Predict the structure of 2-hydroxyacyl-CoA lyase 1.
Amino acid sequence: MAEVTGAELIAEALKTQKVEYMFGIVGVPIIEVAMAAQAAGIKYVGMRNEQAACYAASAIGYLTGRPGACLVVSGPGLIHALGGMANANVNCWPVVVIGGSSDRNQETTGAFQEFPQVEACRLYSKFSARPSSLEAIPSVIEKAVRTSIYGRPGACYVDIAGDMVNAKVNRSKVKGVSCCPPPPVSLADHSAVTEAICALKAAKTPLVIIGKGAAYGRAEALLRQFVEISGLPFLPTPMGKGVIPDDHPNCVAAARSRALLQADVVLLFGARLNWILHFGLPPRFNPNVKIIQVDLCAEEMSNNVKSVALLGDIGAIVTQLLTCVREHGWKYPSNTEWWGSLKEKIAANAEISKGLALNTTLPMNYYTVFHHISQQLPHDCIIVSEGANTMDIGRTMLNNYLPRHRLDAGTFGTMGVGLGFAIAAAAVEKSRDKSRRVVCVEGDSAFGFSGMEVETMCRYNLPVVIIVVNNNGIYSGLDPEAWKEMAKMGDLTSIAPPVSLLPDARYDQVMTAFGGQGFLVRTAEELKSALELSLSDWDRPSLLNVLIDPSSDRKQQDFPWLTRSNL
Ligand SMILES: Cc1ncc(C[n+]2csc(CCOP(=O)(O)OP(=O)(O)O)c2C)c(N)n1
Ligand SMILES: *[C@@H]1O[C@H](CO)[C@@H](O)[C@H](O)[C@H]1NC(C)=O
Ligand SMILES: *[C@@H]1O[C@H](CO)[C@@H](O)[C@H](O)[C@H]1NC(C)=O
Ligand SMILES: [Mg+2]
């Protein structure tokens, strides 16, 4: 009977569990695991930092419904991945991290990169364990993959003792484990569905909110039917954008603050009442708002505001709601005062943004830049975005037309996710017949967190288009002249504004350093032609370094984005 190594068992178990992608950085003791993964038919992407590797692996989980694997070495390698695990867990995205650790016979001796890894991962994951023998590897990996996608999705960690990687066992001794099926589906309680429909029928100013849980749950077709049959206005959360196209007539994203504030009944699909939705509380919500919550996680129900709980699979529950709406022959009328008020606000906001976008003063402002980008992006492109102003303004001006086509800093507000997400999305697209374009819209600060992953994009010929919206800093910056003056006035560490970054930094040259296309962009014409060239090059990545007015800002908001809670 043939023998099999620990590395082979890990790789084969992942493949059996339909894990198709692995991102990581190799070293002692896990080089052989990466090689075995490729031999088993898993695609391996070598990254430049484990944090970005883990972001990438979790994006695979969100995009495909099956976790990506993140492979890291012991100690510092695993610790770099913790940021990615936390981000995945907070976003409810599945990911499986495989960490090599010290040899068992060296534990507690001060071994190379020794660290209490299983314990360390506990706070950042929903499952953290180490197989006790080679024979246990397939079942522990099955459990990690299953746990990552069942219930509320999240991060899982499997620790592999270094000495187990090359140790061998007779195949006959290893019990086969089959592939875990997709998560089981359950329906909401019938009486809760009836209560929800009654509340909606009685509502004067109802609102549907579509979260990224609806995108993850692939409920797009059913939700669109529901919105069209019920005639309700809907608002997407940042990554709920595209579940129903942003240009759908029922979308009230451009009247977000008014919609939230004046809604009397809110039907939440796969979204939490956390900071992104201002906790569901005043001053951003009506104090008497009635919340109907559709979620797969019972613990999420009635967080911050008591709700009617529709617990279960989102697609199944939308079907239940559709059946009721059809039976009752009910539709929210399109000629109500509520629709009128929302449409009026949408038109007023569009006018303000248009004014800012058409300003031809140089340097450009955010609105001008996003206006031109939005005109050129293909409808089916995947938009990755991070930054503060860059992400917030970009979200309002760059439409999504398809589900799971927006990846951003998410619930955890993590800067540095963009390039890893873009690499994951581009890797998935590369394996499809008809690839879609991945466009990564980055603030200059955000880009810096994982900037070296540009080399990864160049190495694997991933045709990502990176647009760095460069305002010389975090939220805002200084122009080159002001910076020079400041440098004359004293030690910059004492006087330079903490938000500032090097003015007019040549991020485009980071791309050309590795053979990609780089563009320095100052005008709308340069932006148009650079974007056209970038989008037509399917063989290599591009970076547009768009220099904007360092004092450009968001248009006046009714409320600050990070509303302090009244909790
Ligand atoms: C990991 C991490 N570190 C720090 C922050 C704090 N932070 C929020 S936004 C941001 C960067 C904003 O600057 P930039 O990306 O240039 O976008 P801009 O607002 O300038 O357009 C930072 C550092 C964060 N959210 N995440
Ligand atoms: C595997 O089985 C063979 C034959 O039964 C035996 O000689 C060998 O020592 C076994 N190897 C291990 C690692 O147990
Ligand atoms: C365009 O923007 C500049 C700089 O912010 C501003 O001074 C100017 O008034 C704006 N022009 C118009 C027509 O809004
Ligand atoms: Mg910036």
Notes: The radius of gyration is 25 Å. Residues 1, 3, 168-170 surround 2-acetamido-2-deoxy-beta-D-glucopyranose (ligand 2) (CB under 6 Å). Residues 3-173 form a domain with the Rossmann fold fold (CATH 3.40.50.970). DSSP finds 22 helices and 19 strands in the chain.
